[in-house]
Amino acid sequence: MINTKNETQGILDVENLKMTNDYIFKRVLKSKTKEGEYILKGFLEAILEYSINDLELYSTEVDAFNLFGKNIRLDILAKVNNNLIVNVEMQRSGTLESLGKRLIYYAMMLIGQQRMRGKDYSKITPIVQIAVLDERKFDDDDYLRLFQKADLEHGNILTEIWKTIIIELAKCLTNVQNYCTLKLKQQWMIFIKEYTINTTDERSLAMIENNEYLREATRVMKEIFKDPEQLLLMMAEEKAIMDELQLKNDARKEGKIEVAMNLLFNHVDIDLIAKSTGLSHQEITQLRNN
Fold first, then answer.
1. Which residue has the higher pLDDT, 2 or 71?
2. Is this prediction's pTM over 0.70?
3. Is 137:168 a contact under the CB 8 Å cutoff?
4. How many other β-carbons are positioned within 10 Å of the β-carbon of residue 77?
């Protein structure tokens, strides 16, 4: 077993890292097969259940529209078949409420930043979000859920422009004798949840051998773990990028505070300040009292 240590992360059991690790998840899916296709293609074809002929990876950093917005950094962002934008997120913890709000914000950013000036709204490129959860969130055995904006009473769908798919890895079917008989999406769930470079489960190995994209994902994971020190360095770089993004968002909040202070100085109503800046009434009251 390879244990690697640094000051901020303590001891990391590198050989037992799985794709539930955010960095490994992104690194594997963004890698290419020996034939030059993104491994992400196999994952998306399994989840979306349709053939992908064209796949283009986009930058995952999305800047807010203005001072009062929040910059975001996505796990994976791609355009599929030139007519669909797909955002894939790996989520290890957190409440369902928090996840829902974050996904809604992401979707609104991705829709709002499309260049629509002079175009009809019918030209908006649809968004599909896929959230892969490492925890059980719903009290049933359904491992995949599709959310859309619809009429709760009659079930009429308002628009196809935005869909969210939530996958719960905790519900993957590991109690079957032959993984190869499972649907491709279930095979991916088992692989993400269970596979390490030390896996010896014959069911998993047979499933991997039978699935070209899982074989390639296995190859990439083994390559990643060849140099544990380099892996830690890359994970540290990823953390540094996230820290920088947080600093940018902190700076945006400082800008909001400055605006709120000016409005308070001019005796503007707190309700109006809250609507204008996005700060809470409590935060504004504290500013006024200070």
1. 71
2. yes
3. yes
4. 20
